[in-house]
Specification:
The chain is globular. The chain is an alpha+beta fold. Helix content is 37%, strand content 21%. The N and C termini lie far apart (74 Å). The chain has a 5-stranded mixed beta sheet. It has a 4-stranded mixed beta sheet with strand order 1-3-7-6. Helix 2 packs antiparallel against helix 3.
Length: 212
């Protein structure tokens, strides 16, 4: 009887310890991020801006090639360049049109607050300096984001120190994001945002400014 009593006490202790550990594990889980209109940037928006900027540059170059007269030795090359540029423009437009908005893709808040224009003559993407997460496009599993100051080439933010990819709740694991911190919380000014994924690498010029 004494042996049976000791065994029962040990089993009770083990079960209690296991239950307590499970509760601790649950309580120690990171709280899910609540996406607001100003705390994240969607990689799809960066990519669309890049494609639109690229097309604007191609169209400007096409206008130059169109000025080459047929008597010029470089006429045929100019015409071939025009065809190639138009094909690239069409491909870029097709890709941009296929990018889903984050609201449609993941049912999260799309950045929509009115943003004042950047100081002239910055031809750049305007963003608030309050974003701390980047949401990945569907199908993207790896990403590095680097934000570099145009003024002094310093790193304003980077996901290189936080490569963990998190899943957005209630998206069937389709929605993913990475978190980061700005090295200067209230940084304002022109920056270069560079994105590297398993399928694409590109940079866009942007201007970060305060929310207020």
């Amino acid at each position: 009887m004494k042996t049976r009593y000791v065994v029962l006490v040990l089993l009770s202790f083990i079960l209690f310890t296991q239950f307590s550990c499970d509760e601790d594990d649950i309580n120690n889980e990171d709280e899910p991020v609540t996406f607001t209109s100003t705390n994240y940037i969607y990689e799809g928006d960066l990519r669309i801006y890049y494609l639109e900027t690229k097309n604007a540059q191609l169209e400007a170059q096409i206008a130059v090639w169109q000025q080459v007269p047929d008597s010029d030795p470089g006429y045929n090359d100019a015409q071939a360049n025009i065809v190639e540029a138009n094909n690239e423009i069409a491909s870029n437009e097709e890709e941009a049109n296929a990018i889903m908005s984050p609201a449609n893709a993941f049912f999260i808040v799309n950045p929509i607050p009115p943003i004042p224009p950047a100081p002239s003559p910055c031809l750049c993407l305007i963003e608030y300096n309050t974003f701390r997460h980047i949401v990945l496009q569907p199908g993207t599993d790896e990403m590095n984001l680097t934000i570099t100051s145009i003024e002094d080439q310093s790193i304003v933010a980077s996901t290189n120190n936080n490569t963990e990819i998190n899943t957005i709740a209630n998206t069937d694991a389709i929605g993913k994001y990475q978190s980061f911190e700005l090295s200067q919380a209230n940084f304002t000014g022109e920056v270069l945002i560079t994105v590297d994924t398993e399928t694409r690498s590109y940079s866009v010029l942007a201007y970060l400014q305060n929310l207020e």
